[in-house]
Amino acid sequence: MAGVITIKVEGLEQVQRALVVAPQIAMPPIKRATEQSLLLIQGKVQPYPKQPSRFRAKTFNVYVRGLGHMTRASFDDGGNWLGPREGPRGGQPRFTSEDLGQKWTTKVQVMPRGFLGILGNTASYAEAVQGEKQAPYHAQTGWVKLSTAARQMTGKIQQLFNNAAMAIAKALRRAMM
């Protein structure tokens, strides 16, 4: 999934100075805050939304999120999932899903003055489901865009970095004693 989302955390000038003057003290808390930020956002986008009604289209929807296309025999008359079943004429379930929910990746890169957190998804269709090129159908059926999740988590992310700044200040004071 391509795209860049920037969350600017204000008021960390002392942290930036500490990264230069005492990187061994400043880097661990900032790296931890970066990792935790990625996990916060991932926690918003990773869960699958509720499966829409199987009867909402003209034909019965046999797609099961995280698995793929099942046979009609895999559902009861009310549309409830019974598990993968062979169809009455020998049709087989097709396990076509790339398992979007399990394809999230996180990476933290060391930069000259801090860290870069990268959250991605390796499923080929991730951009159409949760990226900036999200298809309207996916928005209508409850999929959260990555950028929306990041905006929703901004306050918590800023708090993580503020906590890291306080931990750095405390460690620097101890080191100077």
Task: Spell out the key features of this protein.
single chain; 177 residues; alpha+beta; two-stranded antiparallel ribbon; two-stranded antiparallel sheet
Biggest sheet strand order reads 1-2
Query: What's the pLDDT, averaged over the residues?
Result: 89
Query: Which word captures the global form?
Result: elongated
Helix proportion of residues, in percent?
Answer: 40-55%
Query: What class would the helix/strand composition place it in?
Result: alpha+beta
- Oligomeric state of shown chains: single chain
Unreliable stretches, pLDDT < 50, 5 or more residues? none
Q: Mind summarizing the main beta sheet?
A: 2 strands, antiparallel
Explain how this protein is built:
The protein has 177 residues and is an alpha+beta fold. The chain has a domain at 13-49 and 100-176. 41% of the residues lie in helices and 11% in strands. The protein contains five helices and four strands; from the N terminus they run ααββββααα. The chain has helices at 13-21, 23-45, 126-130, 136-140, 146-176; strands at 63-64, 68-69, 104-111, 114-121. A hairpin with a 2-residue loop joins strand 3 and strand 4. Helix 1 (13-21) crosses helix 2. The chain is elongated. The N and C termini lie far apart (48 Å).
